[in-house]
Amino acid sequence: MAQRGFFISFEGGEGGGKSTQIRRLKSVLRKNKIPFLVTLEPGGTPIGKKIRELLLNPKNKNLSERAELYLYEADRAQHVEEVVKPALKAGKVVITDRYADSSTVYQGVCRGLGVPWTEKLNDFATEGIYPDLVIVLDVPETVGLARVRARLSFDPKLHGKRRVVKMDRLEREKQSFHRKVRKGFISLSKKHPKRIALVDATQTPDEVSAQILGEIEKRWRRKLS
């Protein structure tokens, strides 16, 4: 099963629980002795970490929408070349926290740069390498943002004003922006139901995990058939 490689991306708005579900999936794969690699965008490579700092630093308020998109695509191109392709070639399960669909929604839809143009840039950056399964963790934007604030408030490493400062450039966007993000992912999942699974992330973590594992099993069987 793992010899052919399998690519999974986790998507959705802020506070959907991607980190939690990725940790749970790692445990399942480790228990079953399936080789895997966990990565993320932006920042999955040494070069990408520098790009991530530019993209998410709240001090960069004057970053243009086009520059933002190109920085994400530059990070993605390096990520695919340095991390994703080699891992898939080695037969690993590759799990990434965000990938091309995030640009389609955040920049193509929410920034108004256009889905067709953004998808063309995605094609170029990824060399046509797309996930076998995209998991979109869906929560109302009010719930997701409340989770982000709660996570920061309970972070023992943060004190006082640092709890607010810790929020990155995208987390600080207006609620209306995050509402567009949610609608964008829902629309994308309806457009591409064969590759995108929309998961209700307001369920308990156990319920969400069970649904994710079910979706993975279906896609895995389809790929092997």
Mean pLDDT: 89
The helix count comes to 9
- Ends distance: 11 Å
The count of DSSP E runs of length 2 or more, i.e. the number of strands, is 5
What portion of residues is helical?
A: 55-70%
Low-confidence stretches: 158-165
Strand order of the largest sheet: 2-3-1-4-5
Bulk shape? globular
- CATH architecture designation: 3-Layer(aba) Sandwich
Q: Roughly what fraction of the amino acids lie in strands?
A: 5-15%
Description:
- The protein has 225 residues and is α/β, with parallel strands linked by helices.
- It has one domain: Rossmann fold.
- 56% of the residues lie in helices and 12% in strands.
- The protein is built from 9 helices and 5 strands.
- The longest helix has 25 residues, at 65-89.
- The radius of gyration is 17 Å and the shape is globular.
- The protein starts with 5 loop residues before the first strand and ends with a helix.
- The relative contact order is 0.19.
- Mean pLDDT is 89; it is low at 158-165.
Helices and strands, with pairings:
Layout lengths: L5 E6 L6 H14 L4 E5 L5 H11 L8 H25 L3 E5 L2 H11 L4 H12 L6 E6 L2 H13 L8 H4 L9 H17 L4 E5 L4 H20 L1
Helix pairs in contact: 1-9, 2-3, 3-5, 4-5, 4-8
Offer a concise description of the structure.
With 225 residues, the protein is of the alpha/beta class.
